[in-house]
Amino acid sequence: MPAFTASAPGKIILFGEHAVVYGQPAIAVPVTQVRATATIRPNLGGKWGEVRIQAPDIGLDTNLQRLDPAHPICEAVNQVTAALGADHIPACTLRVRATIPIASGLGSGAAISVAIIRALSGFLGHPLPNETVSALAYEVEKIHHGTPSGIDNTVVTYAQPVYFVKEQAIQTFEIAAPFTIVIGDTGIPSPTKESVGDVRQSWQRDPARYERFFAAAGQIAQTARKAIESGHVQQLGQLMRQNHAILQQVGVSCPELDQLVDAAQQAGAWGAKLSGGGRGGNMIALTDPEQAPAIAAALSAAGATNTIITNLQ
Ligand code: PMV
């Protein structure tokens, strides 16, 4: 049984986070500069079923049997063995590496799951199609998110821009004119499960108010898709500003995110917003490609711990 390696990119949500959990459309795109990779090597002479897990980025070096069954890595492995009806895995080492910052809205959890699911199913001789990979990763996402919409596992599996509506077939779309996004990391880890859970509580307290926010964000995502498909790139900037204002009212921004959003706009970005679960993690800014390095520098000066420039085309 030869070694098997698979990987998956990071992602950003351009429009519609949180509202997407409530059935509104959202737009997400892959970020190929950051990736998660899983490699499985056979341990010759090892006992059947003995799976060593190494994830040096989170300081993990253990055996599958010793890992909490609710751990996302364990869940990803179990999803594959259950889907393939494989009772035992030959002795092997599963090594997971990721350059995607954890708990920052760049889809690290989904990318790690997708990489593991692909690597393990390939190692076992039954590589799974994208639809199944995404569906299994969605099951693991429930550990990260509680009530995930499914957008992260979808965009990360297909590695294409997606217009996503919960429980509907994946829709991809054309980018008519390329555009540049600068990603700025607040450096504040923010588990999505918490912000999604808090939004749910707020929605339960005042459903009418929150549904208005979600509907407005959904409308923005629809308009943004048309702008992307027709090459009206600058219009996206205004839509980003509107979406960020809604997310502030929904209660998922924080002073650090607002500061980076303001800094990007002062440095000439056409628009900026938080991206993902919020309360920390990343924000994104839309810019002219020539202006991107200056915006990245302005973000660093305003406290961003990391910046990434990504061109979408
Ligand atoms: O994984 P994050 O932080 O990018 O958040 C995903 C987007 C949410 O809408 C907040 C949650 C979801 O499941 O769609």
Order of helices and strands: EEEEHEHHHEEEHHHHEEHE
- In angstroms, what is the radius of gyration? 20 Å
Number of strands: 11
Q: What is the number of helical segments per DSSP (H or I, 4+ residues)?
A: 9
| Class per helix and strand makeup | alpha+beta
Query: What is the distance, rounded to the nearest whole angstrom, between the alpha carbons of the first and last residues?
Result: 39 Å
Task: Provide mean pLDDT, rounded.
Answer: 95
Bound molecules: (3R)-3-hydroxy-3-methyl-5-(phosphonooxy)pentanoic acid
User: What does the largest sheet look like?
Assistant: 7 strands, mixed
Q: Overall 3D geometry?
A: globular
Estimate the helix proportion, in percent: 40-55%
% residues in beta strands = 15-25%
Q: Low-confidence stretches at least 5 residues in length (pLDDT < 50)?
A: none
Features:
about 325 residues; alpha+beta; seven-stranded mixed beta sheet; four-stranded antiparallel beta sheet; 9 helices; about 40% helix; about 25% strand; globular; binds (3R)-3-hydroxy-3-methyl-5-(phosphonooxy)pentanoic acid
Structural write-up:
The protein is an alpha+beta fold and 313 residues long. Helix content is 42%, strand content 24%. The chain is built from nine helices and eleven strands. The protein has helices spanning 72-84, 108-123, 130-145, 151-158, 192-205, 207-229, 233-250, 255-266, 292-301; strands at 4-15, 26-42, 51-55, 60-63, 92-98, 162-164, 171-172, 179-185, 271-275, 282-287, 306-312. Strands 1, 2, 3, 4, 5, 6 and 7 form a seven-stranded mixed beta sheet that branches. A four-stranded antiparallel beta sheet has the order 9-10-8-11. Helix 1 (72-84) packs antiparallel against helix 3 (130-145). The protein starts with a strand and ends with a strand. The structure holds (3R)-3-hydroxy-3-methyl-5-(phosphonooxy)pentanoic acid.
